Amino acid sequence: MEKSLPKFIYITDDYAGTVFLKNSIMCDCCQKESPYQYNGPVYSVEEGEITLCPWCIHDGSAAEKYAASFNDIYDESLEEAIITTVCEQTPGYSSWQDQGWAAHCKDACVYHGDASAQDVADASEPTRQKWMRDYEQDAESWDHFMKGYQPGGDQGVYKFHCRHCDLIIFNWDFS
Ligand SMILES: [Zn+2]
Ligand SMILES: [Zn+2]
To answer: Which of 60, 92, 124 is the last residue of a domain?
Structure first.
């Protein structure tokens, strides 16, 4: 039977299926064979590539062994346990600039991956307002930047979802 991925509360199952490649590896951290290979950023003082399985990220052992983190979160009003879960026990995502993890309603948000063109076209007014506040932009710049957005281009739009009020939040950067 195929071993299923551990459950990460701050990413969707879809994103988990993207950030962990189906690839038989030997994990550097637990020294066990794994059917999945982590394919995201690792921030560590260790030199060189570290090959990791999902379980060593999930239980925090990789973060501990390599003094590593996978994400940053800049909202200091969050509980310490939430910050630890996001930074040390949640797979990261690739972005152009160093991206913080979105937070809302005193909790970290759930990451869905790159926004689709449809996600951006369908953005609600509260989502647009949040983006304008976060990036000090106005409605005109929303139209200017978001028109013609495609995932994988030189503009990154990263989709997060608040677990409490359902707001969709877009983090945003450029190559
Ligand atoms: Zn492992
Ligand atoms: Zn919220």
So the answer is: 92
Q: Indicate whether 139 and 59 sit together in one domain.
A: no
Do 5 and 39 fall within a single domain?
yes
Identify the domain containing residue 13 by its residue range.
1-92
Count of domains observed in the chain: 2
Ligand 2 centroid to Cα of residue 61, in Å, is 30
Q: What spacing in Å lies between the alpha carbon of 105 and ligand 2's midpoint?
A: 4
* Residue 104 maps to a domain: no
Q: Which amino acid is at 48?
A: G
**Ligand number, closest to the Cα atom of 105:** 2
Convert the pLDDT of each residue in 13-60 to its tens digit.
999 999 999 999 999 999 999 999 999 999 998 778 899 999 999 999
DSSP secondary structure of 16-49: HHHHEEEEEEE-TTT--EEEEEE-S--B-SS-S-
Query: First and final CA of the chain: distance in angstroms?
Result: 41
71 CA → ligand 1 middle, Å: 18
Ligand 2 centre distance from Cα of residue 66 (Å)? 33
